[in-house]
Amino acid sequence: MDQSWRELRLVAAAHAVSTFGSFLNLVALGLFVLHLTGSPMRTGVFLAVRLAAGFVTGPVAGRLAGRYRRPHLMIGADLCSAGMLVLLVAAPVGARPVVLYGLAVVLGAGQTLWGVAMRSHLPTLVGPEQRTRANGLVVTVRSVAMLLGFASAGVLVGWLGYHVAFLLDAATYLTSALLLLPVARRTAAGTPPAAGAGPAGPGGGHPGRLGLLRVVAPVVLAMIAVRAADAFGSASHNVGLPVYATLVRPDAPATFAATFTTAWAAGSLVAGRWAARRAGRGDRTGRGGTDGGPAPAGRGGTDGGPAPARQGGTELPFAVATCLMSVCFVLAFTGLPLWLLAPVTLAAGAADGYAEITYTTRLQAVDDDLRARLFGFASAAQNAGFGLGMIICAGLLERFTPLTVVGAAHGLALAAALTFLLVHVRLRAAARRQPAEVTL
């Protein structure tokens, strides 16, 4: 147990360093592309290529993480990202536009592969009963890294210039890879992920994409759909925030946007710490955390199909947190004074962080040989929702106010979460009544 948690802390530290690098280059590269090309459209194309690469990589990442050792894939993604950033700095000026699009592909694909491999690997690392605690720790350190990345990106670019900022960014990926080396060495001595025996496809092998959707519990697919709608809503406030900040604080839009994002990240940090501590207290008292502990014998497997009542530990908190997040984000665009905006945005971040923890914990409950592919599919769905949201909401902001656009997009997420919540509550109630009816 102690060894597992030491390795988890290494993975969490690597995730924090890698996330810092991702948010640093998200800001710095956007500014650099605009500076290099002078074209907002080409800047948008760069971001679209990065998102598209993440979307396409999702299913591929799931297959790779199910077949190869996941820490090795994470290290490979880090090294590729670092190499492309160094290449961008070393490339001649005339070649940099081409290198930029290659970098967009590598960063988008690498980030997706890293996330799928990490989330698939955590239950193997700490055990099924520790999933919530581990996910809480990951969300906590990622939130800290996001705060630092957002806060330092503009300062680093302004003080050090683009080239030094990119080299510093490359160093974060190299540091992440170094932190993962002890985990990779221990994993190399164990059984590769593909060795597990799970549900077979028509030819005796692993199920195809449609087979995967048939094997996992319907509630998991519904949660992925809600999360994709949530990503669509998140795109609206990401696109709408610069416009809204310019409208409400034309004298200092950057300060307003920084306050908004900082409060959101702080809320996510609070959610991660609370979930980890709550799960830890449950472990010490023997009651389990949000996972609810291992299922009793005869109550179905980890995919949750035959035991809907038992698997209610994460679904309901996920739906409630998603609803709260959407409502708070819409409220944040209603012109609230700063003293009220900060706690509302913090609540949105806390709800968003907790929704992610419960969502990830539930997906990690499937069998190990299916888990990686399921995360790959889920990653593709989220990237699709976010990408469509960026395109559609950016177009709508040309004609409508930020409140209207954010309200409509998060209204879609709210409707999806409420539908999931109501249907799931009714199914759980029906499952509880069924044994009594049989007894009569």
Automatic annotation (TrEMBL):
Main location: membrane
InterPro entries: MFS (IPR011701), MFS_trans_sf (IPR036259)
Transmembrane regions listed in the UniProt entry: 12-37, 43-61, 73-93, 99-117, 137-160, 166-184, 215-235, 255-276, 316-333, 375-397, 403-423
Keyword Heme: no
Pfam families documented for this protein: MFS_1
Subcellular locations according to the entry: Cell membrane
Alphabetized UniProt keyword annotations: Cell membrane, Membrane, Transmembrane, Transmembrane helix
UniProt topology in membrane: Multi-pass membrane protein
Keyword Secreted belongs to the record: no
Region (Disordered): 278-310
Protein name as annotated: MFS transporter
